[in-house]
Structures are given as C-alpha cells and as structure tokens.
Amino acid sequence: MNHIRNIKKSAYQASRGMMRLLPFFLWGFLFFTSCSESSDEKEEFADWENFNRKKWNSIYAQAQERVSAGDASWKIIRSWNYEDTHSAENTSNIVVHVLKEGTGSGCPLYTDTVLVHYKGRLMESPSYPKGFEFDSSMGNSTSAEMAAPAKFAVSLLTDGFATALQNMHIGDEWEVYVPWTLGYGSAAKKTIPAYSVLVFTIKLEAYYRVGQPVPDFKAKRWTFLQEE
Question: N or C: which end of the chain has fewer CB within 10 A?
C-alpha cells in the first residue's frame, strides 16, 4: 500500500510541477511565434529602401527614354507643389504610362472632388511577384462591374496621387508610379513599408468643382485595360 501511495504522490508532484512550468512554455511559444512572424515580414521586404531606390531610378530612366523617343504614352510630371523651373531630384516627379485616353476635357483642380476607380500595389517581393495590392476601389465587391468608384477630395490625397489626378481627363486610365517622397515617405503606414514606390492604376470617372453637389454614383461596367 505504501508503494502505491508513493507512486500516486510522485505522480501528483510531477503534475503540479508541469502546471507551474506551463506558463513558461506558453510564453516561449508566443515569443518564438512572434519572432517568426516579424522575421517573415523582414524577409518579405528585406533591404526595401535600397531596392525601391534602384527600382525608381530604373523606372524613371526608362520613362525618360520613352519620352525622348516620342512615345506619347509615357509622361514624367512634376509634383503639383513644385514649379517647373525648380531644380529637384527625380523623386519630385511621378511617372505615368497612359493605358487609355479618355474623351473628357478639362482636369480636376486641387480643390475638387473626384470619382475614381483605382488599384494600388507595391513593387514586387518574394511572395508577391506582381506587387502586394494594398488598396482598391473594389471594396467587398466580387467584380469590377459591381463596384462603385471611390470618392476623394483631391486635397486630402498624397502628393503623387493628387498630381496624377490634376493632369487627367475624364475617361483616362493611367498606370502611375509614385516615389516614396510623394507617397508615404520614410515611415511605414499600415501594410505599406517605409520607402515604398507605389504603383496605381487609376481611371477618372468624374470630378466636381467646389460647391457642386456630388451625385450618387451607381456602379457600372468598367475594366482596367490590362485586364481586358
């Protein structure tokens, strides 16, 4: 009987010891899981600043070549808040590839409200060879046909996006390359790492001057050119 009691006592003490250690095991698991997730994020965007600087310089150089060759589908546009005569680095500009020309006349002003369809993505990374898509006017819609355009005040947008809109006509579809200096800069913003070159596909649907009512805009069929 004593032998059995001793076995039960040993088992009870061992279980109590395991219970005391359980919090440490859980802490260790959570710590290493957190470190693993942080490591994965760092690997996904490793050396992101240098990578994006090189990509931007390459994009800008290619655009210069296309513009010099007379290709009207490529544009280099100085940020709206710089004078054309202002001497600045290439990161004071956006690069535009015109996918489709609209038939509208006039352009939005900085004080206007616009209706646009758009997608925003980053440069390519290991898990996203076409670039991580961080935003879109699709929302929760299952297709572009079901989505209504987004409504923005131009003045509340980043300088790069605002610059593009102030040079677009209704119906224009542009692929716009925005350097970090005209995007979110040297600080990370939600899913966008610091020093990110942003790539937007934008279709301008409508714009409204100050004081004009902005009507409800029902969804209609539209597609980005590269998806056709």
Answer: N
**Is residue 82 within 8 Å of residue 162, measured between CB atoms?**
no
How far CA 82 is from CA of 49, 60, 70, 92, 225, in Å, comes to 24, 18, 25, 8, 31
Give the separation between CA 191 and CA 46, rounded to whole angstroms.
15
**Phi/psi of residue 137, each to 5°?**
-80, 0
Q: Find, among 73, 61, 103, 87, the residue nearest to 176 by Cα.
A: 73
* CB-count burial class (<10 Å; 0-12, 13-18, 19+) for 114: buried
Check residue 94 and give its pLDDT. 98
Is pLDDT above 80 for 11?
A: no
| Token reading at 122 | 């980053």
Q: Is the torsion defined by CA of 122, 206, 107, 209 positive or negative?
A: negative
- Which position has the higher pLDDT, 166 or 19? 166
**CB contact at 8 A, 225 and 201:** no
CA distance 116 to 200: 11
- The H or E element spanning position 150 is strand 150-153
Alpha helix (H) residue ranges in the chain:
2-44, 48-68, 159-165
Query: Phi/psi of residue 91, each to 5°?
Result: -80, 5
Task: Please enumerate in sequence order all residues whose Cβ is within 8 A of that of 165, keeping only pairs 6 or more positions apart, or say none.
Answer: 107, 108, 114, 116, 154, 157, 202, 204, 207
